[in-house]
Design brief:
The protein has 114 residues and is an all-alpha fold. 63% of the residues lie in helices and 0% in strands. It is built from three helices and no strands. The two termini are 20 Å apart.
Length: 114
């Protein structure tokens, strides 16, 4: 089972990768690295990880809001990845899926503490 921190890193990894493309960069994310969470040694480490995710989520939401409608139907990087719309929807669904996992992990942790 993954940890809440590992899932948080994983979500942000993909979000940051898509934001790079939104900003004109290359799509360089790879599944094999998506759980390569650096060690968390302190509350500050955790806060940094969470803050990065929240910041990227905010930037993502603003970028999508400002994106011209015609951009949504354009190819995202390569035809095999589909359109911008497909990738926006996919990353949102991906995040919801993992947020559900986080809720279940938290419930298990709380139940174990009783």
């Amino acid at each position: 089972m993954n940890t809440i921190a590992a899932i948080t890193y994983h979500i942000n990894y993909y979000l940051a990768g898509i934001l790079t493309v939104f900003n004109g960069g290359l799509l360089e994310i790879k599944d094999q690295y998506s759980f390569d969470l650096p060690p968390i040694h302190s509350e500050a480490d955790w806060n940094k990880l969470a803050s990065e995710l929240f910041d990227n989520a905010s930037v993502f939401a603003i970028a999508v809001e400002k994106m011209p409608d015609k951009k949504l139907n354009e190819i995202f990087v390569n035809e095999k990845y589909g359109t911008y719309l497909r990738n926006i929807e996919a990353v949102i669904e991906h995040i919801y899926y993992h947020l559900g996992q986080i809720v279940l992990i938290k419930k298990l942790i709380l139940a174990a503490g009783k």
